[in-house]
Amino acid sequence: MTTTTLLEQRLIARIEKEGPLTFAEYMRAALYDPQDGYYRAGASRIGWAGDYFTSGDLGPFFAHCLGRQLYQMWEELRRPQPLRVWEQGAGRGELEAGIRAWSEQQRPEFAAVLSYRSLDLQRGEDVLSSETLQELQEREGSPHVILANELVDAFPVHLVEVRRGQLYEIYVSVEEGRLCEIAAPPSSPEVATYLDRYRIPWRSFPDGWRAEINLEALRWVQLQAKLLRRGFLLVIDYGDRAARLYSRSRLRGTLLCYHRHRINEQPLVKPGEQDITAHVNFSALIDESRRHGLRLRLFTTQRAWLERQGIFEELEELRRSQFMAADQERASDQGQIALLRWYNLRQQVLTLTDPAGLGNFKVLIMRR
Ligand SMILES: C[S@@+](CC[C@H](N)C(=O)[O-])C[C@H]1O[C@@H](n2cnc3c(N)ncnc32)[C@H](O)[C@@H]1O
Question: What 3 state SS string does 23-35 have?
């Protein structure tokens, strides 16, 4: 017999009383429920001991590239003092630590003015709450840079499916005491017209074609645009432009669940105990930012961005400064240890820039 989580039991009771939930409502509960939601449940789920890892887990390189990026932004803004950076969905705060370490070592004058604020649901800060953001703005002033690495993919999404040329929305219902999916007309005009906004020819797509619709991402961009008086919005995540994301060949969408480094496609299993994510529609972030007065500065792959920010030069510099023994004393223990440590570092960089993996993440910079 399969066990149910407490959250699952509460959701079943709620659906039996109030009727089916949109998938977005279900996902919000599974991830954000104040008692049992995945992101609220105390101990961190990120990292090698958790359910998944992020770029910051692969050595110091990613944070260093961000440090260089923030330094360039500071220069471009003519060196405001302080430079207020708000990292949203900061998780364990590892990027902050890495960026601070880089700044202190490489750019002390920048480190001295860097005012870095890590926000996360796990610390009780919801970046989809306008009150939370406004309060912080009133207390500390407007941010110059808003940074989000793998945040937007965690926002609750609506699910839609094409059936005989019609668009249906997927809801979560209950059958024989278990959560199940049902299809019904879209829950709002926003959901019904979303794909048309990005000129996706879904009417000609085959039966069963699915897509995720992240309305919270639009709301999040609106909130950020209000906060940014002068500065940058920097978003890193997996996803793509709408035309590539919502393509005919991606038949079942991009929704995935993560539990202990295993991936599955069963979001109704064990709500609250597994992460649920969907790829980000970057066209939506770009269009919505533009509608609120921001300009596109950069949209590229993580690999190309890391290259621009000197990841390979940093690796080469490390080899020259710390790993000469790997070349010159190969026969000795010292040389062998140096070689293994060097391979490890090089592998971190290859993983971060892998065109079939993290290297294909997207980096978006908008400017006001
Ligand atoms: C995939 S993790 C990324 C963590 C970190 N940025 C990194 O690179 O390791 C997503 C993080 O976003 C946070 N998060 C999700 N929705 C949030 C929200 N509405 N407000 C604040 N944090 C949120 C989660 O708690 C989680 O720590």
Answer: HHHHHHHHHHCCC
Cα angle: 268, vertex 274, 280; to 5 degrees? 85
Q: What angle do CA 155, 265, 186 make, to 5 degrees?
A: 55
pLDDT digits (tens, 9 = 90+) for 160-213: 999 999 999 999 999 999 999 999 999 999 999 999 999 999 999 999 999 999
* CB 39 near ligand 1, within 6 Å: yes
Distance 39 CA to ligand 1 centre (A): 8
For the four alpha carbons of 278, 279, 283 and 289, in that order, the dihedral sign comes to positive
Give me ligand 1 centre to Cα 117, in Å.
14
Length of the chain in terms of residues written: 368
Asked if residue 122 has its Cβ within 6 Å of ligand 1, the reply is yes
Asked if 162 and 196 touch (Cβ cutoff 8 Å), the reply is: no
CB 152 within 8 A of CB 217: yes
H helices, E strands: number in the chain = 14, 16
Alpha carbon of 10 to those of 33, 43, 259, 277, 364: distances in Å? 11, 22, 21, 22, 38
Q: How far apart are CA 316 and CA 305, in angstroms?
A: 17
The pTM score is 0.94
Residue 69 contacts residue 232 (beta carbons within 8 Å): no
Long-range contacts of 353-356 (CB under 8 A, 24+ apart): 353/302, 353/303, 353/306, 353/307, 353/311, 354/303, 355/301, 355/303
Using alpha carbons only, how large is the chain's radius of gyration in Å? Answer: 22
Could you tell me the fold of the domain covering 6-45+155-217+242-281? Answer: Rossmann fold (3.40.50)
**Cis ω on the peptide bond leading into residue 82 (within 30° of 0)?**
yes
Closest atom of ligand 1 to 277 CA is 1
Q: In angstroms, how far apart are the furthest CA atoms of the chain? A: 73
pLDDT band at 250 (very low <50, low <70, confident <90, very high): very high
Residue spans of the domains in the chain: they are 6-45+155-217+242-281, 310-353
Query: What's the chain's average pLDDT?
Result: 93
Q: How far is the CA of 189 from the centre of ligand 1 (A)?
A: 29
Query: Phi/psi of residue 22, each to 5°?
Result: -65, 160
